[in-house]
Amino acid sequence: MSLMHSLRRRRVWLPALVLTLLGLLIAGYRWTHEPVTVQRVLPMSAEARANPLHGLMLGLRGAGQTVELMGHLDLGRRAPPAGGSVVLLYPEAQVETFDQAQALIDWVAAGGRLVLPMPRGDSAPVLVDILDSELGVRSLRGVAASADCARLRPPVPQAREPGSADTRARQICGAPFEVLGSVQASLVWPTARAARFARLPYGEGEVLLFSDFEWLNNALLRPLATSTDPDANANARASRATDLALMAALAAPLLESDGVWMVVWRGGSLSSLLISRGWPLFLGLGLALLAWLLRRSQRFGPLMPSPSPHRRALMEHIDAVGQFGFRSDHGHGLHAAVRANLIDRLASRHALAGLDNGALAQALADRSRLPLDALNAALTLPPRPTPEAFRDAVALLSTALHRL
Predict the structure, then answer these.
(1) What's the pLDDT score for residue 170?
(2) CB neighbours of 286 closer than 8 A, spacing ≥ 6?
(3) Which one in 20, 29, 105, 336 has a CA-CA gap of 20 to 30 Å to 176?
């Protein structure tokens, strides 16, 4: 009974001891450690890298608008919706001919909405001419792109927070332009000669023209940098709120369309893209090719003939053995072996044995239909035969052997 009682107590105390030790370890870990939140800025996705207005696209989709990314704009094959919007990030790469520009402006006149930055310099002469002739917009080439930057406030009062008196604005540079006074524009900012933003009606649609899209890029997606100075953090949050309010104000017309197409192709031929972005791959392939050529090339030193390849032809081996035997004075032995083989076959097949040379030659001539004189000469080999006489004798005896 005492043994059974001891076993039962051991079964109870051992699990209790293990659970107690485990609880102490957990309590000690929680006492010496505390959770810490670490923020890491992840790299942008491939879609965000390809589209500088990825933040604007996410905002439009979050508001319920349909946004489609396009690599190329071809109105002849597939036209945007009649009441939709087209955002050209790089108009210089998308509108290259007069027909393309005319088709695009005709689509706007039918009720479309075109959003684009002002082309810089002579990069898109066709598009600049269309903007000048149809919309009265002229590029100010004499004004530097980085000079005379202006601060753009939200053009729609509802974009600000209710009751907010904040007068912060966003600085916009880029290619300035001017809008002729005769053009009926719904909004041109600023009203001075060097404009940075214009909302121009054309037909049933309108054109939203900006100096550039730099202030709308994906910087709004990056988290705010925290600082130990509370005032700096407050200013950063206020600046971010101003940027978002300005984006919301200028994106408000896009929410009214039947769909938004963002054309994000930068242009450039395949060769230029390979040269500009594919040079690491070509450099690696070139080094690998150079290493292979060095490995396969002949090294410095005296030229040596290449070793002869192995020959496995059976007749060549037999011929070589025969020539070696003849040069070693074993020709009579080879001739005697062929002559003995011939006599043995003649005796076994025709019951002729013990014949002298004359009778043997006559029997072979009758049965193999070979000349008698040649057989007499082949059966008796001279003491010092020439290679030709030896070859002829062995060949004739071999022919007689096959004809028996």
Answers:
(1) 66
(2) none
(3) 105
